[in-house]
Amino acid sequence: MSNTEDTTLANFKIDEKLILVNESADSPEEIIRKLGTLLFDNGFVKDSYTQAVLDREKVYPTGLQARMAGVAIPHTDTDHVLKPAIAIATLAKPITFQMMATPEEKVQVEIVIMLAVHDAKLVIPVLRKVIFILENDDALVAMKNATTKTEVKTAMLKHIESMNKKVK
Amino acid sequence: MYKVKIVVVCGSGVAMAMHAAYKLKEKLEAEKLSVHIDGSGNNELPGRIANYDIVVSNVQVTVETNKPVFNAIPLITGVGEDELVEKIIVKVKEIQAEKSA
């Protein structure tokens, strides 16, 4: 039971209820809607959140090519968020996202990490740890290979723990 | 020594810009360079850009500027980071040389 309980990191929830494994989706919009629904149904975000993420993704896309995986980190303004959380999806087949900073370029995304941030200043150390996963080859591989929600969550928590000395 | 002012830009100027800004600050301070680094949202940039010497951005910079603009993504993914930091170091030194000339 203990390893399936919610984990609080500076009030940031990484919860198995917010994880999808080997999920099928055909477009960024479809996977953003699925993760947005999980965040909304579990009371982390307002009903305006998903549309706000979709709108922002059009203007400021969030696809990134890390060494070991294509990763997208959709997010939006704090107004749409009630409680901070991270929703994660690993994809059965990669989805084409536009790249952050150079939207004319595309990236094949295998992992989507959707951030719900209610107060950026308060959670920035945790957020920074989460974003550092892009540089953690072992963590990205573990996440891509995960077959259960627990494995995805464990990969993220193990990564965050490894960052505790690096990021204060 | 002239303190070179760098602004790191993202969509809203919080999470992604701050992450890249912290990383860049560590790298430049390790080189003992005199710099000041802030984060900014893309929307605020037109009003703030005059105060900075260098722009490093996670988003397409929409304001017209003749200041040097660098793509911040290598600081976020770690891919090509050393090369980017090296380019910024060269630019910082160039600006410091100009200002003290």
TrEMBL record, chain A:
Do you know which SUPFAM superfamilies this protein is assigned to?
Answer: Phoshotransferase/anion transport protein
A Pfam family this chain is assigned to: PTS_EIIA_2
PTS EIIA type-2 domain location is 12-159
Q: Which InterPro entries match?
A: PTrfase/Anion_transptr, PTS_EIIA_type-2_dom, PTS_SugarTrans_NitroReg
Q: Which PANTHER family match?
A: PHOSPHOTRANSFERASE SYSTEM MANNITOL_FRUCTOSE-SPECIFIC IIA DOMAIN CONTAINING PROTEIN, PTS SYSTEM FRUCTOSE-LIKE EIIA COMPONENT-RELATED
Q: What is this protein called?
A: PTS system IIA component (Gat family)
- Source species of the chain: Pelolinea submarina
UniProtKB/TrEMBL annotation, chain B:
One Pfam family in the UniProt entry: PTS_IIB
Which InterPro entries does this chain map to? PTS_EIIB-like_sf, PTS_EIIB_2, PTS_EIIB_2/3
Instruction: Supply the alphabetized keyword list.
Output: Transferase
Keyword Signal tagged: no
Q: Which Gene Ontology MF annotations are present? A: protein-N(PI)-phosphohistidine-sugar phosphotransferase activity
Name used for this protein in its record:
PTS system galactitol-specific IIB component
User: Which PROSITE patterns does this chain map to?
Assistant: PTS_EIIB_TYPE_2 (PS51099)
Q: Gene3D superfamilies recorded for this chain?
A: 3.40.50.2300
The residue ranges of the PTS EIIB type-2 domain are 4-96
Q: Which GO terms of type biological process are on file? A: phosphoenolpyruvate-dependent sugar phosphotransferase system
